[in-house]
Specification:
The chain is mainly α. It contains 23 helices and two strands. The chain has a two-stranded antiparallel ribbon with strand order 1-2. A hairpin with a 4-residue loop joins β1 and β2. α4 (84-106) runs parallel beside α15 (331-362), α13 packs parallel to α19 and α14 (307-327) runs antiparallel to α15 (331-362). It is globular and about 65 Å long. The protein starts with a helix and ends in a 7-residue tail after the last helix. 51% of the residues are buried.
Length: 496
């Protein structure tokens, strides 16, 4: 017995070497909070520099782990799992956090509790990373709550009536989604006899369950994960919450929780699918979710008059397109989804950074407020137009390549296993480019074809212009040379 205990202890100690990025984030959170309590009147630069160092250190270890963890490894007696796929999505999370940190730096004059807000940024990153590594339902719930609670507080850090209402609405929807998900987990545990999804015991016991009960329980459980990626029908909170947040918080909420949610949802999809032996056709259900998400979000976006609410519905629609990568049922499909997420990160932060500049200069994010911007701020107008074109998925941006890869993998999957549902999703997704053209191009239309009404008069700072130029270079360059990013993804083991 002592030998078994010693062996388990040794395995747990060895597990720490594979969660160094998470440990770095935990240390960063503690240092930020403790330093804010001990040292009064410390400059904002210190907190931003500390957060930057912590995120860069975490990113270096994540990159190292991507090539190291080619095979899945169980950590802490099956609570966590280290694999190359999770580490790739962790890299996306760190990149999203770094880009958000830059946007918070731009808004630093409006931040009164710098250490606390940046600690929430690191907490969201930590929650997202732990969620991606979760191999146990208990760990999954704890990680989601860490990510969610940090997100609720982040929205409320605007310290205004609008942000308080948005934070409360986010909290109420999130609490309800989590409660429903936990109820689903209790049923799954009763049916399978284990909390480790993807284990042999889980697969064997779920294969013999009633299809109707398995369907209901699975849908109840999926509610919480669909909430994290803002997919229909768990999307109703997104427009109001996003619109009540600052541009920096909006960009963060539209990316980091979505990446973490999609990563774990991919694993859950394969676990529920029971590697092809499920009594329920979960592929049809996910196709239905993706189709409704794309269609409903695009229709709602047509009616928006505020750029932030427009980006909120855009984020919902993008979730539907990202789900297509999961439905391809192949490593190539997951690789295409990863490419899509990478391009979405670039385009989302480019567009939100320019909307943030407009908001800081004029205090208005209404689409009409962008009128005439192309005549006195030509660079900003061009950059914003290209960012919106990338979100649409049109050339000459890498957004076109991303959607091409996603739909190509869906078409290939349909050829291998013909089915009308996949073909319908393919055609429906392509047709939804038409409404997307209308609502995405309304802002460029205002900028170039309407009379001047914008209040932006100060020139763009040179360092900010370099940042936007770099984002544009990547979006345009990856359209011409997508193999540069795809070759790097080829090093990742997408087998789950």
């Amino acid at each position: 017995m002592l030998e078994a205990l010693a062996a388990k202890t040794e395995i747990n100690i060895a597990s720490f070497s594979l969660i160094i990025p998470e440990l770095i984030l935990m240390a960063g959170i503690c240092i930020l909070l403790i330093s804010s309590l001990i040292v009064k009147n410390k400059s904002q630069q210190f907190y931003f520099l500390l957060s930057l160092v912590v995120l860069l250190a975490a990113m270096l270890f994540v990159i190292d782990n991507i090539s190291y963890n080619q095979q899945s490894l169980k950590l802490f007696n099956g609570m966590l799992q280290a694999d190359s796929f999770s580490n790739l999505f962790k890299l996306f999370i760190v990149i999203a956090a770094l880009l958000s940190l830059l946007m918070f730096w731009i808004e630093r004059k409006n931040i009164s509790k710098t250490a606390e807000q940046l600690s929430l940024l690191l907490s969201m990153s930590l929650g997202g990373m732990l969620l991606l590594s979760s191999a146990n339902f208990i760990m999954l719930i704890i990680s989601i709550e860490l990510l969610s609670i940090s997100s609720y507080l982040m929205v409320g850090f605007g310290f205004s009536k609008k942000s308080a209402v948005g934070s409360l609405k986010y909290l109420l929807f999130g609490a309800a989604a989590t409660a429903v998900m936990i109820y689903g987990v209790s049923w799954i545990y009763g049916m399978s006899g284990t909390l480790e999804f993807g284990s042999e015991i889980f697969i064997q016991n779920m294969m013999i369950q009633s299809p109707y009960l398995y369907f209901v329980v699975g849908c109840i459980f999926l509610a919480g994960l669909l909430f994290k990626i803002a997919a229909v029908p768990m999307h109703l909170w997104a427009p109001d919450v996003y619109a009540s947040s600052s541009s920096a918080v909006l960009a963060l909420l539209a990316s980091l929780p979505k990446i973490a949610g999609l990563g774990i949802l991919t694993k859950i999809y394969y676990a529920l699918h029971l590697f092809g032996n499920s009594p329920v056709n979960w592929q049809i259900i996910f196709i239905l979710i993706a189709t409704i998400t794309i269609g409903a979000a695009n229709l709602a976006a047509l009616r928006q008059r505020d750029a932030k609410r427009l980006m909120a519905w855009s984020s919902v629609a993008q979730s539907g397109f990202m789900l297509i990568g999961i439905l391809s049922n192949s490593s190539e499909g997951l690789e295409a989804m990863s490419f899509y997420i990478g391009i979405y990160l670039l385009a989302n932060f480019l567009v939100m950074g320019l909307i943030q500049y407009q908001e800081n200069q004029s205090g208005d994010t209404q689409i009409l407020a962008f009128s005439g911007l192309g005549r006195n701020q030509f660079f900003i107008a061009i950059a914003l137009t290209l960012g919106l074109i990338a979100l649409m998925g049109l050339p000459p941006t890498a957004g076109f390549t991303a959607k091409l890869l996603i739909f190509t993998q869906l078409y290939t999957s349909w050829q291998l296993v013909p089915g009308s549902a996949k073909l319908f999703l393919l055609i429906f997704g392509l047709l939804n480019t038409v409404p997307a053209l209308y609502y995405y191009l309304r802002i460029p239309y205002m900028m170039f074809f309407k009379e001047k009404s914008t209040q932006i008069t100060s020139p763009l700072p040179i360092w900010l212009k370099i940042y936007f130029l770099l984002m544009l270079f990547l979006l345009l360059g990856l359209f011409l040379q997508p193999e540069f990013l795809m070759a790097w993804f080829n090093r990742v083991n997408f087998a789950l």
